[in-house]
Amino acid sequence: MCREGRDKKNKSEASTRSHTQARSSSDIFKTILLVVIVGSLAWFYKAIQPPTPRTIGSTSGAAVTWPRIKLRDGRHLAYKEFGFPRDEAKFKIIYIHGFDSCKLDSPFPQFLSQALVEELRIYTVSFDRPGYGESDPDPNRSPRSIALDIEELADGLGLGPNFYVVGLSMGGEITWTCLKYIPHRLAGAALLGPVINYWWRNLPRDITREAFSLTSPADQWALRKWFPFSNVIAGNPVIFSRQDMEVVSKLGGFRPNLAYIRQQGEYESIHRDLKVGFSSWEFDPLDLEDPFPNNNVSVHLWHGDEDRFVPVKLQRYIASKLPWIHYHELSGSGHLLPYVEGLTDKITKSLLVGEEEVPESREASA
Ligand SMILES: *[C@@H]1O[C@H](CO)[C@@H](O)[C@H](O)[C@H]1NC(C)=O
């Protein structure tokens, strides 16, 4: 082949190639666009269509390994008992676990001293909240429904007309709903580092804004509504105070039961929990009138002044607006209060028998 001819051929090949390239890059662009659109639709569909739940006890789900009670609507709640035998106990406590957690995370078995269990005859029960562990999800869940679940659990176990509730973190947030919807069933309540829903309408905007600005700026846009839960989900160390870090290393990790907690899928466990916890509620705890005007039931709120999950400043504000709450602020404490050595005994004693250490300065002036 002569040189000229080869050049020509190359040229025409090149032009064909560039033509093809032009066409194919526009095809690729179209394809990408289509993928993006379909992908977004799929994402959107997924976002509005929860995945099929991996129902406990079904062929697609985990086996039932814990005792469960059946609720009126057919759902089951799995529970774990600890302490004095139920029928002989003097005090009965229902523990409400926090976000991304389960009944196995109840502090009582490990941190309530046996001496106190015996002395006061304390029975405790913890349960997997709907969608966690071995409790069925509740597609109709609301702040009110969880309080009614707790009442049904108490009745299913025969705990009698009145029982105590202790809730940590998001379990503390749920304790507010017990005070609102089932106060007549309570013998007492303790809220430990209770989560605050920034959408409660009476919260002063300047304090919520300030609390918000304490978040790392990079996180702020993503956290908007679920502050500071993306850090919580990720177990990011920035959310732990010094004392929390000690607790986490003592427990051998932030979430030792993670696989069990989310075994029904993240949608039914953590997503729905966040959705309900941070939706607009039918009530604002700041509007609650004293549920116990006879003073025969006491309500305690405990908060660490180094809590990085829930800002102490907001908690102080809430406590100051509700004079019927016994507010205990713990200096140097973080969020994971009941796992601190000795604190569960202290919290439990003050709830059940009203024993409180009176600060020395006040004792002296009294
Ligand atoms: C507190 O007093 C009210 C009103 O008398 C009563 O209905 C309720 O059962 C009492 N609660 C407890 C725990 O004793």
Count of discrete structural domains: 2
Q: How would you sum up the global shape?
A: globular
Q: Quick one: how many beta strands?
A: 8
Spatial strand arrangement across the major sheet = 1-2-4-3-5-6-7-8
| Secondary-structure element series | HEEEHHEHEHEHHHHHHEHEHH
Average of pLDDT: 84
Low-confidence stretches: 1-6, 11-18, 216-227, 358-366
Q: Could you say which structural class the secondary elements and strand pairing correspond to?
A: alpha/beta
Give the biggest beta sheet.
8 strands, mixed
CATH class of the largest domain: Alpha Beta
Strand content bin: 5-15%
Q: Which ligands occur here?
A: 2-acetamido-2-deoxy-beta-D-glucopyranose
Q: Give Rg in angstroms.
A: 27 Å
CATH topology value of the largest domain: Rossmann fold
Q: Count the DSSP helices.
A: 14
Characterise the protein shown here.
Keywords: Membrane, Transmembrane, Transmembrane helix. This is AB hydrolase-1 domain-containing protein. Pfam families: Abhydrolase_6 (PF12697). It comes from Brassica rapa subsp. trilocularis. The chain is α/β, with parallel strands linked by helices and about 375 residues long. The chain has two domains: about 1-45; about 70-360, Alpha/Beta hydrolase fold, catalytic domain (Rossmann fold). The chain is built from 14 helices and eight strands. The chain has helices at about 5-50, 110, 115-120, 145-155, 170-180, 205-215, 215-225, 230-235, 240-250, 260, 265-275, 310-320, 345-350, 360-365, and strands at about 70, 75-85, 90-95, 120-125, 165-170, 185-190, 300-305, 325-330. It has an eight-stranded mixed sheet, with helices on both faces. Helix 12 (about 310-320) links the parallel strand 7 and strand 8. The protein is globular and about 75 Å long. The protein starts with a helix and ends with a helix. 2-acetamido-2-deoxy-beta-D-glucopyranose binds near residues 187, 294, 296 and 297.
